[in-house]
Write the C-alpha cells for this entry.
Amino acid sequence: MTPQWPAPVADGPVHATVPVPGSKSITNRALVLAALADGPSALHAPLRSRDTTLMVAALRSLGVDVADGPDGSWLVTPNPLRGPAAVDCGLAGTVMRFLPPAAALAVGDVVFDGDEHARVRPMGTILNALRALGASVDGDALPFTLHGKGGLPGGKVVIDASASSQFVSGLLLSGARYEGGVTVVHDGKPVPSLPHIEMTVAMLREAGVEVDDSSPDTWQVSPGPIAAREWHVEPDLSNATPFLAAAAVTAGEVTIPGWPSTTTQPGVAVRGIFERMGCTVTHTSAGLTVTGPAALHGLDVDLRDESELTPTIAALAALADSPTRIRGVAHIRGHETDRIAALAAEINRLGGDAAETDDGLVITPRPLHGGTWRAYADHRMATAGAIIGLAVPDVAVDDIGSTTKTIPDFPGMWSAMLGAR
C-alpha cells in the first residue's frame, strides 16, 4: 500500500485535454487471441498497467513470446503452450478468468494464484465449466492448479454467469481451439456487463472466428484457427471518466482525444449519464468534451451493463443537488472489493448519506468534510476519492497506488490536468 495521497482541491474550473492510455479490456482480450493465433500478431497502443503486464507475464510463463516493439507495441509470437508454469493473477479478473481456458490447452501443470483479496473472488463457475469441457482442475478458487493435457474436447456447457460476464468471455476466447469448439449457455439471473461479451464476440470475429450469438443467453464458437492480425487498441473510456468528472465537479471543460465514433466499450455510456446530470457533452474530431454545469443533478440510473462506472457516478452523486439511485449492480460486490459496501462506507465517513440496497445505492447529498478515503486496494475506489477531493478540502486517499492496475500514473495525470487550468 502506498502512503496516503492528499487529493488536490480544484481552485477553479478545470480546463484540460487529457489523453488516456489504451483499453484494458481490449488489450487483455487481444493478448489472449494473439497467443492462440496461427502466426505473429501486433498490439498497437496497448495499455501497459499492472493488469496487462500480469497478462503478458502469464503468457510468457506458458511459452508465448511477447516482445516490446519500438513504438510501445507488443509483438506476440505464439508457441505451443506448456507447463509447469505459475500465473500471478494479482487482482485482475481478466487474468484469473481468461487464462485458465487457454491454459487448459497447455501440456503440464499450471498453478494460478493472486493477491489476498483475489482469493475470495468468484471462480467456481469458470473452473466447473472447464471440468465439464474435459479439463482437470484442483481447487475451486485461487490458488488452484490446472493439469494441462494439450487440448480439450470442448462442447456445450451450461453456466450461471450472473456474477460476472468474464465467465462467458473467458470460455469464448479460447473456444475455437477446442476440438469441438464451445457452446456456452447462461442459465440464471441476467448477465451483467453484456457489452463486454459483445466486445469479446466482435474481437473473435475480427480474428476470423465463427461465432453464433443469435439466440438469447447462448454463444457458440466453432472450432478453427484464430487469425494473426494487427490490433489497434482504443483509449480506455472507463478510465477516462474520472477526468471527465473533474469537469462536471468544477464547472470546467475536459476533452479526451481519440474518443472512438463507434465502440463496444461499456464506458461509452458515460456520455448520456453525464448529460442527465446536467453536463454538456460534445463529440468532435478533437475528441469527447464534457462541460460541467453550475450544479450537478442526481438521477435514477441502471448501470447493469456498465457497472464499472459506479464509483465515478457515486462520487458525483455525493456532490449533486438532489438524490441519486444506482440500480442493477449487485454483482460489483464481487469485484476487487465489495464496491457497494465500500462506496457507502466512504461517502458516509466524509459526512455523506449513502445507503446500500440489494442491487446498488441510494445517495442523498449532504455537506461533506475532509478525512481518509479508503481505496480497499481497488483502483476505481481510489479515483472516486480523487473526484470528491476536487470539491472537498483535506481528503486523503489511503492507497492511490492501486490505480496502477489500469492507469500507469494516475497521480501524475491528475496533477497535469489541474495544472493545465
In short: The chain has a mean pLDDT of 96. The chain has two domains: 5-21+235-419, 24-221. The chain has twelve helices and 23 strands. The CA atoms of residues 271 and 421 lie 23 Å apart.
